[in-house]
């Protein structure tokens, strides 16, 4: 956590704000000089709040408006990539009604340990593979995913192991 404060808002993984328990004021780390951020990091105490960046493995909630049924918002684990976009396995697009034609998706980050645990237990993709409406699988391989799997595994197309990345 101290390193996140030292990194500040512009370096990942960093932090945007820090709120010390005694003052109650939020300090915006982007405008603070590195020396002051280092001093604040050294002075961190139990009870201070650090608004850090999302890192790999964090629990996030993902949805596409309108959220009309319980599978319209589900829990995923974040995998941070260098681009400014969300990436989603196409097998999980069914519940969202997403079809990669410019869909707008929303990501929410639970702020407490209770909220993260509740989201993981109740809303995790692995717990919601089957639709409660009629028991059919709603998360499965579809369209291009099946075609690509067929082409990659067909006997006519053999790829040397040195080309695998």
UniProtKB/TrEMBL annotation:
A Gene Ontology cellular component where this protein is annotated is:
DNA-directed RNA polymerase complex
Tell me the Pfam families matching this sequence.
RNA_pol_Rpb1_2, RNA_pol_Rpb1_3
Q: Does the keyword Metal-binding apply?
A: yes
Q: Name one GO biological process term.
A: DNA-templated transcription
| UniProt keyword annotation of Metal-binding present | yes
What molecular functions are annotated in GO for this chain? DNA binding; DNA-directed RNA polymerase activity; metal ion binding
- Look up the EC number in the record and give it: 2.7.7.6
* Catalytic activity, as annotated: RNA(n) + a ribonucleoside 5'-triphosphate = RNA(n+1) + diphosphate
Listed SMART domains: RPOLA_N
Q: Where in the cell is it found?
A: Nucleus
Supply the enzyme class, top level: transferase
Record's keyword terms, sorted: DNA-directed RNA polymerase, Metal-binding, Nucleotidyltransferase, Nucleus, Transcription, Transferase, Zinc
Please state every residue range assigned to the domain named RNA polymerase N-terminal: 1-153
Give the highest taxon in the source lineage: Eukaryota
Protein family membership: Belongs to the RNA polymerase beta' chain family.
* PANTHER family (UniProt xref): DNA-DIRECTED RNA POLYMERASE SUBUNIT BETA' N-TERMINAL SECTION
Q: What is this protein called?
A: DNA-directed RNA polymerase
